[in-house]
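User: If you would, consider this record:
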Amino acid sequence: MAIVANTVEQLLLAAPRGYCAGVDRAVQTVERALEQNGAPVYVRKEIVHNKHVVETLRERGAIFVEEETEVPEGAVCVFSAHGVAPSVRAGAEARMLQTIDATCPLVTKVHREAVRFAEQGYTIVLVGHDGHEEVEGTMGEAPERIVLVQDEHDVDGLQIDDPERVAYVTQTTLAVGETTAILERLRERFPKIVGPRTDDICYATTNRQAAVKQMADRCDLMLVIGSRNSSNSVRLVERSEREGTPAHLIDGATDIDLSWLADASVVGLTAGASAPPAVVSEIITALSGLGTVTVTERVTTTESVQFGLPREVRR
């Protein structure tokens, strides 16, 4: 990004921002697997939805594939943070792959809930985005018992054999407000619907959306660091726009269009849960170099969550 004079006077940094515990665990898992096994290490799907992370790991010797069937028999294969269906695990076992499961523990929680509800005879409504890897993995736990809804209109069209035996689970990276509206509609249609003991939307998604909501009205523009296939990053853009503040999703400093900044005195900056710290620092440096810019961090909460690494890479 070229450094030119403009109207930006203040840069507000949302906190928390960037890596969550699940992403950090997944990235470290691939790094450890490469250190312990040497290259190549195969990864089914993108380990997390961020192009910088994927490119960096690819340079170190990770090979990203769409399906486990593309991995040579007996090779090391890491499952992404988004989770996989039981059929994928079975396919990997049939190929005698040395699997390492980097699924976020919060996603694993949703899988277990789906299995429990299915075993109890419920029809399970999964609130999520069609085609997202996390949704595909969760639905694979009980495909004959899970139906997907993406919005309130989908809820209205649901046809369920036993309306008194309905349960719900949700994708972990959804917009909090949007999901609340869908769940309210589900409860209207199915008064006896049951759900998980604790909220499925992950702490990091909730915290980053809350941070944007609290600071958006103080900003003329919001920049969100994250890749376009990152659900939680896209939700941050939407959150800002719902608060009336224009927002742009960027992968790095070179994606910033200086025309966005022309009439912006205060710029907000946040990052999706899969955006690496180095990219966040790069953009802070670039924006700080535009002139006399005051950089202020606005902390809404402090995160202390940590997840242990998979046993295969702990040594």
Summary: The chain is about 35% helix and 20% strand. The two ends are 42 Å apart (CA to CA). The first helix runs from residue 21 to 37.
